[in-house]
Structures are given as C-alpha cells and as structure tokens.
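Shape matters. As here.
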Amino acid sequence: MKEPSTLIGIVLALVAVGVGMVLKGASITALLNPAAYLIIFVGTAAALFVSFPMSELKKFPKLIKIIFGGGQKVPSKTEIIDSFTKWATLVRKEGLLGLENELTNIEDPFLKQGMELIIDTTDSEFSEDVLLEKVSAIQERHRKGALIFSQAGTYAPTLGVLGAVVGLIAALGNLADVEKLGHSIAAAFIATLLGIFSGYVLWHPMSNKLKLLSKREIEIRHIMVEGLLSLQEGLNSRQLEHKLNVYLTPDELVQKYAHTGTNEEVSSGQEKASYSS
C-alpha cells in the first residue's frame, strides 16, 4: 500500500519555501549553496553515526521505504475479526488441531506463528506471555527506527546555526566590499534555513509517521493476540466476535454490519458514531 501523503507534504513544503522567498524578494538561486548542504546533511549523517550503532543505521533505507510505502501490509481489523469468527466455529467442531489446515492460507508471519503456538500448547498463560513478548519486541524495534529520525530532526537545526556561524566568519572577510558582504551574509543564513527545514519538515514528521504506522500495526497485533487466546479458551464465534469488536471504532462497526443487515449492531454503531461526532 502506497502512502502518498509523505511525498505530497514534502512537495507542498518546498513550494511554500520557494514561493515565500520570491514574495519576500529573495532569489531561488540563493538555495544553490553546496557548503550549506554539506554542513547540514553530511553533518546530520555524521551525528547519527556517532549516536547509533551501524546495525541500526543499516535499517535507514528500509525505514524510508516504509515511510513512503505506508508500512507493513497487515490485514484490516474487520478482516481479522471475520477470520477469527470463522476459526472459532471450526475449533468448536474439530478442536484446535482443526486449525492446522488453515496455516497454509495465513500470510502474516506473526499470526501464523501464533496459530502454531496455540495448536502446540494448551497452556494459555504461556501462550499469552510468548505472544505479548513478541508484540513488545516489535514495538521496541519500531521505537528505535523512529528514534533515528527524531534525533536527526534535533541535530539538523543546531547544525544550521553552526553553518550560519561558519558563513558569517567567511562574510567578515568581505567587509571592504559591501555587495559581496551582503551575498555572504545571505548565504550564511541558507544553512540555518536548510537546518530548520530538514529538521521540522523532513526528519521530525518522518519520525511521527513511523510512530503512527507502528501504533496501527501494534493495535492489529493486539487484536490477533486476543483472538488467538480466545480460540485457545474455546470461546464460540459470537462471544469472540463481541470481544474483538471493542477494537473497532463506531464508524467501522457501522461499515462491518451494514452489509449483513444485523440491525442491532448497525444501530449500536450508529448511536456510538453520533456520540463521537
């Protein structure tokens, strides 16, 4: 699933900066300052190399792909609930061993491993501990990925100030030439502009995007955990469905039951949606 909002946001930010410079009477060509780009982007990269081990930084290209691609492909909440409802009916008829034939149809690795776990053990506490540990490990991995970008967003504006200082030092060498002095000062502040722009328009927002994608995936994982444990407990399909429906928003409840004609659920979802609006 592609996520165009990131690219749209970056393009809008670039357009805003460019148009803003023109309206203020500044030339777009002032942005063509190799020294400023070197200080900001190479400097940010250097700070990241100091801050993080190489094992974490190697994930940077993959994280960029996630940001622009919309994250890992996982089933929707309604798809998961429908699947678990079907599996609950199967378990009531054939027991947990009846789920073995379903394993080949499950593409999600976490869900597949969880299904194998509940088939192999009858200890629900052990299953819960293992599944929640897996979720915690996923959450921690996501946190480390987002931290790289949030730290980059912290370093870049500071390096912008550093770039401005370096530029002003160079400008002091042109005090005898007023015109050249003005260009030197303008060039000095390009580094500050790039530092602020990259920090607050690129790195911090990208970190937030990763956090939101992580939150969405972790919620899906928790639904899977609840569903797997419910199958192990032997809940019937209706009980399991009610239990997992708590993860759905009122609008999702309305959409889920609108095509089934279950008036009780539809009216309940509509009522909740009206309270939330």
Remarks:
- Residues 84 and 227 are 6 Å apart (CA to CA).
- The chain has a mean pLDDT of 86.
